[in-house]
Write a structure and sequence with these properties.
By secondary structure, the chain is mostly helical. The chain folds into 2 domains: 49 residues, no CATH class; 87 residues, no CATH class. The chain is built from 3 helices and 2 strands. 1% of the residues are buried. It is found in: Gas vesicle. One of its GO terms (cellular component) is gas vesicle. Belongs to the gas vesicle GvpK family. Keywords: Gas vesicle.
Length: 137
């Protein structure tokens, strides 16, 4: 096996490690913690550390993060379609208005739960952040 053959596995390990950090995953129980070294040490059983006082806010944060990711993906796809000339002028106007409304609703929901848009951006370690950087006004 060459170094190139091992690279994708390392990338998956990087993603798993980043997810562990982002969602504060902890070993499930002391008996589930494998001894140091070996392959088993890299993939211990995990559970989410849920604080009863913040579980609702954490769940809202996760849901809003996914919604914001999807909103940004839709926005990028819409821009590609506009650039490619796939849409009529009326469709462009409707799509633009819809995307602006979606963004406004996201801001409202964040305010309602005392979150900022930056709170929704998960740090994936060596992969960077989940969401692209915020655009300057």
């Amino acid at each position: 096996m060459t170094a190139d053959d091992r690279r994708p596995g390392n990338r998956f390990d990087d993603v798993a490690d980043a997810a562990d950090r982002a969602f504060r995953l902890l070993p499930a129980a002391p008996q589930d913690i494998p001894p140091p070294g070996g392959q088993a040490a890299r993939h211990p059983a995990h559970r989410i550390s849920a604080d009863p006082d913040t579980v609702e806010r954490d769940l809202i944060k996760l849901v809003l993060t996914l919604v914001e990711l999807l909103r940004q993906l839709m926005e990028r796809q819409a821009l590609q379609r506009v650039d490619a000339g796939d849409l009529t002028e009326e469709q462009e106007e409707r799509l633009g208005a819809t995307l602006m409304i979606l963004h406004d609703r996201m801001v409202e929901l964040c305010a309602r739960y005392e979150l900022t848009m930056q709170d929704l951006n998960l740090d994936l370690g060596p992969l960077g952040t989940l969401l692209p950087p915020a655009e300057e006004p």
